C-alpha cells in the first residue's frame, strides 16, 4: 500500500488501498488496528533494536468488520476506507486529549483497549535467539555447500 501524510488527519498516515482491491472470497473479516503511542511519538526501528528509548506503553484499539459490510466497487471502497481513517483520527485525537480511547462511540460491544508494554530484556533475548539461529543456519548451509562443492 502506498502511504502519504494528510494535512487534514494529523495523527494518521493515510494509505491508498490499491493493493487491497475487494475482499477476497476466502477472507471473512477486515481487521482495523489503531495504535496510540506515548505523547504521539511512534517507536522507530532504532529504538526497538537498540532499546535506547525508555520502556513505554503502547495502546492498540482493534475493530473487526465483516467482509460482507465492505463495499465491492472502487469508489465506495475508497470512501469506506477514508471514513475509517477519519474515525481513526477522532479516536487518536480523543486519546491524546484524555488518555483513553472513546471505546463506546466506535464499536457495538466495547472491550477496553489492550496495553502492550515494551520490555528491553525481552527484545535482547529475541535478538540473541535470532542471531544464534542465523549462525546455526549459516553453519548448516556452509556444511551442505562444502559437502557438494568439494
TrEMBL record:
Signal peptide: 1-15
Transmembrane segments: 123-149
InterPro entries reported in the protein's UniProt record: Acyltransf_C (IPR032098)
Keywords: Acyltransferase, Membrane, Signal, Transferase, Transmembrane, Transmembrane helix
Protein name, per record: Acyl-CoA:lysophosphatidylglycerol acyltransferase 1
Family of the protein in this entry: Belongs to the 1-acyl-sn-glycerol-3-phosphate acyltransferase family.
Domain Acyltransferase C-terminal: 53-110
Organism whose genome encodes this protein: Zootermopsis nevadensis (Dampwood termite)
One MF term in the entry's GO annotations: acyltransferase activity
GO (cellular component) term, any one: endoplasmic reticulum
GO BP term, pick one: phosphatidylinositol acyl-chain remodeling
Amino acid at each position: 500500500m502506498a502511504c502519504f501524510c494528510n494535512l487534514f488527519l494529523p495523527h494518521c498516515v493515510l494509505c491508498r488501498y490499491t493493493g487491497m482491491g475487494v475482499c477476497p472470497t476466502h477472507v471473512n473479516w477486515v481487521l482495523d488496528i489503531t495504535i496510540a503511542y506515548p505523547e504521539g511519538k511512534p517507536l522507530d526501528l532504532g529504538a526497538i533494536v537498540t532499546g535506547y528509548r525508555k520502556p513505554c506503553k503502547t495502546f492498540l484499539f482493534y475493530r473487526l468488520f465483516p467482509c460482507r459490510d465492505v463495499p465491492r466497487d472502487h469508489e465506495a471502497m475508497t470512501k469506506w476506507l477514508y471514513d475509517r481513517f477519519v474515525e481513526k483520527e477522532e479516536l487518536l485525537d480523543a486519546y491524546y486529549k484524555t488518555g483513553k480511547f472513546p471505546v463506546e462511540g466506535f464499536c457495538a460491544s466495547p472491550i477496553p483497549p489492550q496495553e502492550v508494554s515494551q520490555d528491553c530484556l525481552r527484545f535482547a533475548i529475541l535478538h540473541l535467539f535470532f542471531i544464534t539461529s542465523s549462525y546455526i543456519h549459516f553453519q548448516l548451509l556452509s556444511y551442505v555447500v562444502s559437502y557438494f562443492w568439494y
